[in-house]
Amino acid sequence: MWEVGGLVRLAADSMKVALVVMPLAAVNRPSLAAGLLQAAVKQRGIACDTKYFNVLLWKLLGAESYSFFCNEAPMTALAGEWAFSQAFYGRRGSGREAYAREVLDSPVWGLAPEKRGHVWALEELAPQFLRLAFESCDWGQYELVGFTSTFEQTMPSLCLARMIRERHPRVKLVAGGANFEAEMGRQYMERFDFLDYVATSEADVSFPQLCESLRDGRAELPPGFLCREGGQVREAPRGRGSDGEVLDALRTPDYDDYFRIIRTSAPELARGMWLPVEASRGCWWGARSHCTFCGLNGEAMAFRRKSAWRVVEETDELARRHGPIPLQFADNILGMDSFKDLLPHWASQPARTDKFFEIKSNLKRRQVRQLREAGVTHVQAGVESLADGMLKVMRKGVTGAQNVAVLRWCQELGVESLWNVLYGFPQEDLDDYERTLSLLRKLVHLRPPDAVSPIRLDRFSPNHARWREHGFTRIAPMPAYRHVFPFPEEALSALACYFDYEHPQLGQVLERGAALSAFCHEWKERHRRRESGELAVRPHWQGGFVLVDSRFTVSPGSERLSEETLGMLLACDAPTSREQALRVVAESTGAQEPAAALERLIERGVIARIGSLLVTLAMLPDGLRTEHVSRAN
Predict the structure, then answer these.
(1) What is the DSSP string of 341-359?
(2) Greatest CA separation found in the chain?
(3) Would the pTM count as exceeding 0.90?
(4) What is the per-residue DSSP string for 542-594?
């Protein structure tokens, strides 16, 4: 190396970069962010390693406890961040008693006493883990060490970064990821003086540029980065999000370091592994109508989609490198053009890898079938409520009947559908809670919701940006932030992702929401034991069809179905109006008074009336649709 204009210039072949994936990132998949950046840096001829220290902590803490932090611990309690803050600040900050009293004891955002042992165990283990991570390699061999932080990775990253700075002051330190986006990044930059750079937006192009600038001894700061100059924080203008052409130009993520550590240290993680990939960024629905509770996209809402050929090329390359591992698409929402190009291509292939996508719940049944034929075996269905009034408050752009239909179609076609029930909005109709509970009791033959909870108030959501307009009377950073960071309230407000809130109906919605949660807990337990029952139309051995109803919320029974009843179930297969359903049945079966049959099916909970629409709840076999079509023709 040699000096150029006060900067250290490195020989091109001597530049080395490390990317660090700290806890509490999930261990059953590599980091998409690190994989993309590592591939991009290597493309520029710069050596780059990725350190998966989340796997190290998983081994030290144990699979059960680590899984608790990833899958069960409420994000709003910041339990992992708090445990590592004790290693960073010491007990002069927030001790167990104060943290438990002011955070974990919260009836809404807290953690049950029987689960807190995981948190105390992590607090005790954190110093040993950090020492092992720090001593695992010679950090002095790197010119730049980068930390990616999403969810609870910030304090673990800051702990290790400070240790590196104290021992190796010449090594440059950079942080980025969702927790550093926009104004949040400036707070971290100003308050943790060992950070040299912070990326406040997408860094697919800018991070490799930063590496090249350091290698070449240039003072150029890429778009979207903060740096420290003369004790002051300087900011380069943030660039716009990557467009489709830029997404196509991104390298296939480099996951070799992850698989290396899995092979040598944690082969058991190969079971249940998913490989993260992306076909798009942003949200096409959010760009039109931003869901009021959603803060996922930050400042990069504009929808940008990779071309189908690039997605195919990338997923095929990953399969050649690592085998047919299920693919977890990180997209906020599946692009509708995928039904024209990407999904038909996958469906035409003789071997199909299992895939996960997030979807919008306004799909038709044929589109759900397309997903399954393309190998999409798991979806996040975008279902957060079944009440039309709540969905309007959320700006979801769908009806409760559409949500029910897509959940049933997914189950009929063998697609695992994840969904939630959210409540607690200021402008809700309180009567929707009773209507929702009544409907949930009719749906127990379907997969239960994964979460039933009050809404979070997330940064970047309309609820946060315009909280008074949306009916909130007070917002403030979640109390856990005060126990992680010893900063004034103004600073916490600038770096927090999650906010506490109040509104005039809060007490009532929490009480009524608790009834929903209690019922769904019972539903989950019965589903786990396969005791929730079924509601299904099945072929009868003597011909025709029979309705079997063994839901645990009703008296069990079965009956042979008349042509009129079958016609009504098919007429309401997709959400429809009462008038349309009656007209269709009268025309297809010749029934003179189909209204009586319809009312009987609604009363029995076989068809649901949700708002102004009707939708069938019973599982319908393909054979019924085929037979009905042939008779109609």
Answers:
(1) THHHHHHTSSS---EEEE-
(2) 93
(3) yes
(4) TSSEEEEE--TTS--EEEEPPHHHHHHHHHTSS-B-HHHHHHHHHHHH--S-H
In a domain, 18, yes or no: yes
At residue 460, what is the residue type?
Answer: F
Task: Reduce the DSSP state of residue 396 to 3 states and report it.
Answer: coil
pLDDT in tens, 349-382: 988 899 999 999 999 999 999 999 999 999 999 9
| CA–CA separation, 446 and 444 (whole Å) | 5
Domain containing residue 602: CATH number = 1.10.10
Q: What is the Cα–Cα distance from 284 to 360, expressed in whole angstroms?
A: 10
- Contact assessment for residue 50 and residue 295, using Cβ atoms and an 8 Å cutoff: no
Q: Is the dihedral of CA 32, 37, 40, 46 positive or negative?
A: negative
pLDDT tens across 209-226, in order?
999 999 999 888 999 999
Gap between the Cα atoms of 618 and 547, Å rounded: 8
Establish if 182 belongs to a structural domain. Answer: yes
pLDDT digits (tens, 9 = 90+) for 1-52: 333 333 444 444 579 999 999 999 999 999 999 999 999 999 999 999 999 9
What is the extent of the structural domain holding 621? 535-632
Number of domains in the chain: 2
Scan for tokens 């109906």, then name that residue: 505
| Rounded-to-integer distance, Cα 621 and Cα 390, Å | 31
| Secondary structure letter of residue 619 according to DSSP | B
